[in-house]
Amino acid sequence: MATSSTVRFNKDDQPEFFQVLRKRVNQHFSDKGITKYGDGRMVFKTVFMVALYAVPLVLMLSGLVQATWAIVLMWVLMALGMSGIGFSVMHDANHGAYSPNPKVNSALGGILNFVGGYHINWKIQHNVLHHSYTNVHEHDEDIDKGIFRLSPDQEHKPFYRFQIIYAPILYGMMTIFWLVAKDFLQTRDYHKRGLLEAQGVSYGSAMMHVVLLKIAYVAITLVLPIMILPLAWWQTLLCFLMMHFISGLFLALVFQGAHVLEETHFFKTDEHGSVENSWAVHQLKTTANFANGRHFFAWFIGGLNHQVEHHLFPNICHIHYPDIAPIVKATAEEYGIPYYEHPTFLAALRSHFRMLYKLGNNKYERQLAA
């Protein structure tokens, strides 16, 4: 179970690095005369991703799509739309990077609630725990998975040697788990740890929202299609599960392909709750980019192939990451700090699954401090 205590980063570890980097990045926006937030490109992407999810559902419920093959295609498109909303819309909004207007960020961040999630829990797990304590044992919930061994500091169990086999299956079940169990468990856990209240939400209201949102989502996305579509109920259920499997697998692989890799570092706190690096250096040691030259792929996944830039500047909209990446890389090299990147998404996935094998078979050798 990840803890909620604060990790102490080493403020004496090259503090000038992030000071210089932040100054250079700010100068980039000043020289260009542009905002760090989204622009018309984000508006177009938002409309596209929401339509990719909503239009197929409307076409099915309205009876305009009747053929079985076309119905299956609609569910596949909805899976891509659900992924795109997660990658490209609600992600920036919940980081406060979509717009300078908090109300716009709040509204667009809440889109997650309409695709089976709960934005408050997501913000706690992702913004508070993952971004603050990336790859820190018992603090980063993204590597605190009992069914997987994603950190060398996690106790090894015999069944982990099979994780390279069952990982893709369970990755595909990720959003289904969010829908039926995870949000309920997280709401209870975050309340006990005081994390819900830190977001200005009480336990009672959060649990009520989770219950009502889940009921509404299932009613619209599963019950209505079962009642309306010209398929047997079990066929519609399979289509619904297929949609979630595609989306869950896609989402999991993109995020895992940036942190649980052979070259990235893993940390645990000492008896004082401290780690060895400054926060910015820590982010570079625990994060990797991939497929930075794949423009459509990068566009679709919301710039999350630029994970290094995202972790250093989560309050900057992802459309700017390709422009600031050379600044980040050059500054990291100037200060002798690693800047990890893979040429393709496939290369990152190969590294991830090799890492799963090593951790599962207890063959991982910890990275030496750079």
UniProtKB/TrEMBL annotation:
InterPro entries: FA_desaturase_dom, Fatty_acid_desaturase
Top-rank taxon, per record: Bacteria
Start and end residues of each Fatty acid desaturase domain: 68-341
Residue stretches in coiled coil: none
Transmembrane parts of this sequence: 42-61, 67-89, 159-181, 201-224, 231-255
GO molecular function: oxidoreductase activity, acting on paired donors, with oxidation of a pair of donors resulting in the reduction of molecular oxygen to two molecules of water
GO cellular component terms attached to this protein's record: membrane
UniProt keyword list: Membrane, Transmembrane, Transmembrane helix
GO biological process: lipid biosynthetic process
Keyword Lipoprotein listed: no
Protein name, per record: Fatty acid desaturase
Origin species: Phaeodactylibacter xiamenensis
